[in-house]
Records
---
Amino acid sequence: VAAWHYYEPDPARDAWLRSLIAACHRRAIAVYAWLELPHVSEQFWRDHPEWREKTALGQDAHLDWRKLMNLVHPDCAREVERGTRSLLRRFDWDGANLGELYFESLEGAANPARFTPFNSDVLAEFKRQHGYEANLVEPEKQKAFLEYRAALARRLQTEWIGRLEAMQREKPWLDLVLTHIDDRFDTTMREKLGADAAALLQDTESRSLTFLIEDPATVWHLGAERYAEIRKRYEPLTARPARLAIDLNIVERYQDVYPTKQQTGTELFRLVNVAARSFPRVALYFENSILAPDLPFLPAAAAGVTRLETAGAKTVVESPHGAGLRWRGPALVNGRPWPVANLETVWLPPGIAAVEAGQSVAPLYILDVNGDLKAAGVLRDGVEFTYESRSRAYAVLERLPRTVEIDGTPVEPEFLEQPDGYTLVLPKGQHLVTLRL
């Protein structure tokens, strides 16, 4: 959710967002606060002209839709931190996404009207460090400022990650995501935006966050194969490649492309499929831009199944991250009764799953779960399943169990009632859940 629209409290707007978040949770959908610093909010821009970012021409940095603030100014940074903490406290978020905290300008220093940061605090700091004024005309001095700029972006990103991590002490279930423009496939991004993915990955290696790589606009006209190549370039930069994710922008492209300006149909499905095969998590920007006829096919495109075949009465599915198989009626998975299914789909964990018709229904069905399903089974008096989630998880049950155990310990469960059943709220991490009737 674009959280900057809710930065300042407003009773009507806040009530609407709370109802949206509650509706999402009932349907096992996690909701993240999307932050776009140094854009704070429209009201913040109006209230604090003294803290506005400046371009190299000395103008207020209103670039495209973003109105940028000077986060180097200590008073501005403190006020934005206070407001962001309030924003994260006011709503029942599952996580926060710190997006695009660098200096946007796809033309870099070549276009001073869009080049940032050039506020007085930055210029003074640069002069203290280098002994001369920032200069975009002389090549050597321009190079020095671009290096300073990349280091500043890295510093701001690290500081704000720390500020968001502090919120996890109040809300330990919060997941953190850092959205960062790709500068490994398009190597001009560091010079143009100050983006340095390799350095930031190193800085965050020990931190629990997802590194969401944004597909830069400069390569939107290229084919889906670029996602596998992006993966290859990022894997050596981290000891934990499972924390890498990819962000696809589904919007009109400025390049000459064929057959449509915006990705749709088989082009879109191919992009999503290759991205899902290359990364464990795929984000699509944005839900309102995706064409309605494409929406029903996106889950299948994103499944990333590597093998699908029929062997007698069995359907064999192999997938690295788990998948859903169209299915009606009771099912056996690898010869055992399977309780994770709804009227149309049986949900499978990663690996090889041989699915065949079962003879009897499970005591209770888990209709949906938004965590990563690891295993499941049917017990004499109930069912159990293992999941892993970077935030709270939500499991939709067809009916209420008598007891709930997590990792063998009875708990007082939190249920959210919804039309199709009951949504059980579960803790972050990897856990075994036992449901008894």
---
Amino acid sequence: MDEVVRSGDWWRNEGVSVERFERDFAELEETPLVLAVTSGTHALELALMSAGIEAGARVIVPAATFFSTWSAVQRHGATAVLADIDLDTWTLDPTAASAAAAETSAAAVVPVHYGGVPAPLADLGRSAPTLIQDAAHGPGIRSQGAPLVQAGGIVCWSFQQSKLLPGGEGGAMGFADEATYRRALTLQNCGRIPGTPGYGHLAVASNFRMPELTSALLRAQLERFVDLSIRRANGASRLRARLAAIDGIVLQRARSGDSESHYLVQVRLTSTGGTGRDEIVERLASRGIPVSRTYPPLCEVPAYGASGYDPAEAAARCPNAMLVGRTGLSFHHRLLLAPPDVLDWVGDTVAEAVTSAAERFS
């Protein structure tokens, strides 16, 4: 960071730190073509532009995900079509995605690796011509042992404050082909080809360039990422073992052969939901445990109905997303770095809270 500050070159077109970060991140994610950008949300928007998704085109997104997955499609001028999730992985259900894509002649599908659990990319990639992956809950995700980009299309990561590789803000994109990468490189630089002097703007585009200072912070974070990932994996294994023993809890699970990033440990409650779930969250949070409700289904976000969509129709088509939205709990990754005795205490505290809520609300 000090080196970048002293250089006086704080923007990408004159500095070297962003390119160094791209090389380091590409090595981590086994992705030859990486482009650093301003945020994970911007990565999704730029992916739609770079892939040539036209205004008005249909794009399949999971009904259970963070708002940006949906809003990026809307801001692009395309139409987001919600599809249901699988109740084990909480990721986009291939059958639901294929049905929605066939019904709407979808141009793209956007699987989300929710909580760091990989979506079934081989199946989902067959549902639409273009694959854009939302890997905001990475890095560190592998699908059946392979890097995400091997499935094709574009992969989008986020480096927002709460993420596994935090830079305050920031994002990155990985590309399966060089032509799409070159388009994105131009579109993120106000329509200019990098290295071209002056004002040779070749396309109507915006500025999605990552600042040099952000990249310097991220390079420092990369130095400890692998060690922290190992600690998180060990912590997740211990916490999940405790949670799995609690009556009334079902864990989100990755498929055999997949490697998750351990961004979140997530469960759903079978004995209570709604008010009971919210009371559990408040009780655990009051004890200092980093837990939250899962994302609400997109059809329950006010902007969804305000954009002309029918929330009731979407809810009826996506019962699994609705169930997870009512009954889900998310434990943040910073908890997974806690000592074993703390994780055991968390498991015991969750058991007490779930049992108490079940008695009151069942």
---
Amino acid sequence: MGAYLAQLTTNEMASLLLQMDVHAPSDVRVNIPITNFDEFYETFNIQAGGLMYRAPDERLVIW
């Protein structure tokens, strides 16, 4: 199952999937949620200005 989710798509295919699939694109399902965890920044030494950096006041906190 994991190999199915690790995919490369053309722009045309990505556009089609956005219109037809109820799920977010696979890179968004992974890359966006992890930016909400402080441990992510500590583990990978992500700094302000980095492509995956999200300011602390923009991170989602539920509990």
---
Amino acid sequence: MLVPVKYVLIVSLLWLAGCDSWPPTQVLFTSEPAGEVACYRIPSLVTASDGTLIAVCDQRVPSCADLKGNRDINIVMRTSPDYGETWSDLQVIVDYPEGRSASDPSMITDRLTGTIFLFFNYMDHDLEEGIYYLKMARSSDNGKTWSTPEDITDQITKPDWHGDFKFITSGRGMQTQSGKLV
């Protein structure tokens, strides 16, 4: 016997009405000024191999301007071991001296090794204003520690592109069936 859709809808609504409450909303990063930080922007979220959620984003200090117009952008992280019920305090994971900035993070969790790759754009405003470099850091312990960022620009671009605009996409990368990170 088929149950009419209206009864399924009524039962569903009654079930929802019986729920005490929805999980509380927690703001991980804000686009509003917070102390010395002008804003947080460009989030990326992955799940580590142990189930830990890892959220990273730009911490834009003197202004909310993008990489080309901001001399102090760091990359910060918060983690959740319980699927988003609770989150760690903010941790700065990429922090260069003022004049050198990291921006627009993207992450991939390698499903074959469990390594988390963090890609980001980098600019040294004092050395080469307006020249973008592409960097990568990795974590092999589910985001607890990160390697020193390495410059991968030459691995994925051509030398004659030096002055051209280059950009590692923000957000989240992907992995092909063969294991290649894209």
